[in-house]
């Protein structure tokens, strides 16, 4: 699987495009649908995955859904289980705290897309409506149990690894 990060919108949101054998999944199409469409090229879009419903993560959702005639997946229609969409196989992990609808997507035991729940060196804000610090801490406890070598793909800024976050992120070291 190949992963392309496309930074979009005024808040520099990371939209991720996952490619496998001319198939594509879109994660968090926050804005700038033309920029995203250009990067997708001739690949066939199989679906759109949403980590949470803040405006900077869903701004281009409707236009891309219409253009590619593809389903959209988020916490409202996903359970905490394994899914297979064409050639893509992933687990859904409920990771509330930033918002009550936050989910993370775990692919191939090596890629974790966290939205605004976990960032390099920090966590997402929890003072928005439906956010909650204690809930976010419980979600972090779930993530600590995954293999340390997995790559973390956050909703903003840089990619990291769970190993690096366990070592340096103060929120992952709170007892």
Low-pLDDT sequence parts: none
Shape: globular
Strand percentage lies at 25-35%
Extended strand count: 13
The termini sit apart by 36 Å
Q: Structural class, from secondary structure content? A: alpha+beta
Largest sheet: 6 strands, mixed
| Average pLDDT metric | 96
Describe the structure.
With 175 residues, this protein is of the alpha+beta class. It has a single domain, classed as 4-Layer Sandwich (Metallo-beta-lactamase, Chain A), CATH 3.60.15. The protein has 5 helices and 13 strands. It has helices at 33-40, 55-58, 61-68, 133-143, 162-168; strands at residues 2-8, 13-20, 23-27, 44-49, 72-73, 82-85, 88-94, 103-107, 111-115, 118-119, 122-123, 151-154, 160-161. The longest helix has 11 residues, at 133-143. The radius of gyration is 15 Å and the shape is globular. The termini are far apart.
Summarize the structure.
The chain is an alpha+beta fold and 175 residues long. Helix content is 22%, strand content 34%.
Keywords:
single chain, 175 residues, alpha+beta, Metallo-beta-lactamase, Chain A, six-stranded mixed β-sheet, five-stranded mixed β-sheet, 34% strand
Task: Set out the fold topology.
Layout: E1 2-8, E2 13-20, E3 23-27, H1 33-40, E4 44-49, H2 55-58, H3 61-68, E5 72-73, E6 82-85, E7 88-94, E8 103-107, E9 111-115, E10 118-119, E11 122-123, H4 133-143, E12 151-154, E13 160-161, H5 162-168
Parallel strand pairs: 3-4, 4-5, 9-12
Antiparallel strand pairs: 1-2, 2-3, 6-7, 7-8, 8-9, 10-11, 12-13
């Amino acid at each position: 699987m190949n992963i392309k990060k496309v930074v979009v919108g005024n808040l520099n949101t990371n939209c991720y495009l996952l490619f496998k054998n001319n198939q594509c999944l879109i994660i968090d199409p926050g804005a700038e649908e033309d920029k995203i469409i250009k990067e997708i090229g001739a690949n066939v879009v199989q679906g759109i995955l949403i980590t949470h419903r803040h405006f900077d993560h869903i701004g281009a959702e409707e236009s891309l859904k219409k253009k590619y005639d593809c389903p959209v997946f988020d916490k409202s229609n996903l359970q905490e289980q394994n899914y297979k969409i064409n050639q893509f196989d992933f687990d859904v992990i409920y990771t509330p705290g930033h918002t009550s609808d936050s989910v993370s997507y775990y692919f191939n035991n090596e890629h974790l897309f966290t939205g605004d729940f976990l960032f390099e060196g920090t966590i997402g804000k929890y003072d928005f409506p439906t956010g909650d610090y204690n809930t976010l801490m419980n979600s972090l406890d779930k993530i600590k149990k995954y293999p340390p070598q997995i790559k973390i793909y956050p909703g903003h800024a840089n990619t990291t690894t769970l190993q690096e976050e366990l070592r340096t992120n103060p929120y992952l070291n709170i007892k």
